[in-house]
Write a structure and sequence with these properties.
With about 110 residues, the chain is α+β, with helices and mostly antiparallel strands. It has six helices and three strands.
């Protein structure tokens, strides 16, 4: 029996959520958070370093969005654990917590070139 089959059996027998299942759910949450062009642009920008919301709103994918909409996109990224924020005076700064997602972007670009 494979590890995956054992995990499914444990779950089906009422053993609760398995570690593998929880990890997949976390990954799915990250990919779901990356499922919008505006959020992809934010992650790419934060890959260059910390940025305040006012600078993020100047990204082409965000410049036509309302402030509340931009905030919602940032909350989705934060909820998935991709970014964190800090306040400095009246400004809110965001930083990327999972820079490894940028490698996924590189992989996709390589696949598109193939």
């Amino acid at each position: 029996m494979t590890t995956e089959q054992a995990a499914m059996k444990e779950r089906d027998e009422g053993g609760g959520a398995c570690a593998t299942c929880e990890a997949r759910e976390e990954r799915a949450l990250v990919f779901k958070a990356l499922g919008h062009p505006a959020r992809l642009a934010v992650v790419e920008r934060l890959g260059e370093g910390e940025s305040c919301v006012c600078d993020l709103q100047e990204l082409p994918e965000l410049e036509k969005l309302s402030g509340p909409t931009v905030s919602q996109h940032l909350l989705v990224l934060k909820g998935a654990g991709l970014v964190a924020d800090r306040r400095e005076g009246r400004k809110l700064y965001y930083r990327l917590l999972m820079p490894c997602v940028l490698r996924v972007f590189d992989c996709l670009e390589e696949g598109c070139d193939a």
